[in-house]
Specification:
This protein is an alpha/beta fold and about 210 residues long. Helices cover about 50% and strands about 15% of the residues. Strands 2-1-3-4-5-6 form a six-stranded parallel beta sheet, with helices on both faces.
Length: about 210
């Protein structure tokens, strides 16, 4: 059973989401909050598995709430569900620890699949949102120093990271560098570990911030 906390300032939205989600036998809405602050107050008692988070709310918005939740409750997955697809919102939410970002026009079946995916630890972005996530960090200043974490990577790992930034998958990276896919997977695992990143999406965002597009 996936326990879900709904965070949205509109009661009618929360009511509709609760009815829809609880039609799935694997999901239970354990609480509702009208802003990020109320969500944080309820989390210790409710212990949700997934927080379905709006972005623009009074008192505390979804970005600030996402940061607080992921810092204080790392096992809780935050999935943003909002009408706003601004570059800054998408980028900030993902960099601060959200496991996914979807728009409210997402089909019900897709939303339920997304909840199950983030519950399992996967990261996802709605259609067209990956580009928005990387735009704000894709143009480093000319005089900026490279992040010190890069010193932990070998030259080959840096090559793999650059190709991740370009959008290449493991097969394409393997073909480009004349490696096996298993070797590429090992490099990706090492990169995530050394840079303290959760997954490939975070690696791509980090790489864009360093190398640009």
């Amino acid at each position: 059973m996936i326990h879900i906390l709904l965070v949205d300032d509109q009661h009618i939205i929360r009511h509709g989401l609760k009815s829809m989600l609880e039609s799935n036998a694997d999901m239970q809405v354990v609480g509702e909050a009208e802003n990020g602050q109320r969500a944080l107050e309820q989390i210790p008692a409710l212990q949700p598995d997934v927080v379905l988070m709006d972005i623009r709310m009074p008192v505390m918005d979804g970005v600030a709430a996402t940061k607080a939740i992921t810092q204080n409750y790392p096992d809780i997955k935050v999935l943003v569900l909002t009408t706003f697809d601004d570059n800054e919102y998408v980028s900030q939410a993902m960099r601060l620890g959200a496991k996914g970002y979807l728009l409210k026009d997402t089909e019900p079946e897709e939303l339920m699949m997304a909840i199950k995916s983030v519950y399992k630890g996967q990261t996802l972005l709605g259609p067209g949102l990956f580009e928005k996530a990387i735009i704000p960090v894709a143009a480093p200043t000319k005089n900026s120093e490279p992040p010190p974490q890069l010193a932990q990577l070998t030259p080959r790992e840096l090559e793999v990271l650059r190709l991740i930034a370009s959008g290449a998958n493991n097969r394409e990276i393997a073909e480009s560098l004349y490696l096996s896919e298993n070797t590429v997977k090992n490099y990706v695992t090492n990169i995530l570990s050394r840079l303290n990143l959760r997954d490939r999406t975070q690696a791509a965002l980090f790489a864009h911030s360093v190398f640009g597009s």
